[in-house]
Each structure stands twice: as structure tokens, then as C-alpha cells.
TrEMBL record:
This is DUF423 domain-containing protein. The lineage of its organism: Bacteria, Pseudomonadati, Pseudomonadota, Betaproteobacteria, Nitrosomonadales. PANTHER family: TRANSMEMBRANE PROTEIN 256. The chain crosses the membrane at residues 47-64, 71-92, 98-121. Belongs to the UPF0382 family. One of its GO terms (cellular component) is plasma membrane. InterPro entries: DUF423 (IPR006696). It is a multi-pass membrane protein. It holds the Pfam family DUF423. Its main location: membrane.
Length: 124
């Protein structure tokens, strides 16, 4: 499972760089300042959690049987999809209803980090 999260983390980081560059160069003139800020937030949290997934992949080398760390990694992936991708879509389409999905991603992120801390503390 460690290798899976290392690959997912690396691919998500690659995607962050591509989406960040696209936002900075391709969307700069197309989006309002407000929507560009929303897009930037999506990239920023995407980056944080791509690195979080890499950290989990590395931790799983030391805790290979940790079910809780594995769940934490998948929750970070779910969070990226629900939080960042809903904000990417919201910023480009300005469909405000997409913002209703974003908090579920935020809860996924919070749960993932809490679960990771518990897994390390409890050695589970």
C-alpha cells in the first residue's frame, strides 16, 4: 500500500503543478479576481494533501500493517476530489451549487489528519 500512496502523491503533485500553472497563465484573464482566488485555494489544498499522501506512503514503510494510516490516505484522496475539484469546477463554471460539495472534502481532510495522528500515537 505504501507504493500506491507514493505514486498517488507524486501524480497529485504533478497535477497540482499543471493546474497551478494553468490557473496562473491560462485562467488569469478569464476569471474574476474572486474566482481566481477560489481556484488558488483549490490548488493550495490540493498541494498540501498531495504531500500528505506522500507522507502516508513513507509512514507505511515503517507501519506496513496500519489500517488506520491506509484509511487516512484514502480520506485525503477523497478530500482532494470533493474539496479541490469542486472548487476547480466552481471557479471555472461559477455554478455556486458546487460549493455545497466542498465542506465534505474539508471534513475528509480533517478526519484524515486526525486519524493519522491517532494511528501514529496508538501504533495502529
Amino acid at each position: 500500500m505504501s507504493k500506491t500512496f507514493l505514486i498517488l502523491g507524486a501524480l497529485n503533485t504533478l497535477l497540482c503543478i499543471a493546474l497551478g500553472a494553468f490557473g496562473a497563465h491560462g485562467l488569469k484573464r478569464m476569471l474574476s479576481a474572486d474566482m481566481l482566488s477560489v481556484y488558488h485555494t483549490a490548488v493550495q489544498y490540493h498541494f498540501y494533501h498531495a504531500f500528505g499522501i506522500i507522507i502516508i506512503g513513507l509512514l507505511l514503510l515503517h507501519f506496513p500493517k496500519s489500517r488506520l494510516m491506509t484509511i487516512s490516505g484514502w480520506l485525503m484522496m477523497v478530500g482532494i476530489v470533493l474539496f479541490s475539484f469542486s472548487l476547480y469546477a466552481l471557479s471555472i463554471t461559477e455554478m455556486r451549487g458546487l460549493g455545497m460539495i466542498t465542506p465534505f472534502g474539508g471534513v475528509s481532510f480533517l478526519t484524515a489528519w486526525a486519524l493519522l495522528a491517532y494511528a501514529i500515537w496508538a501504533d495502529k
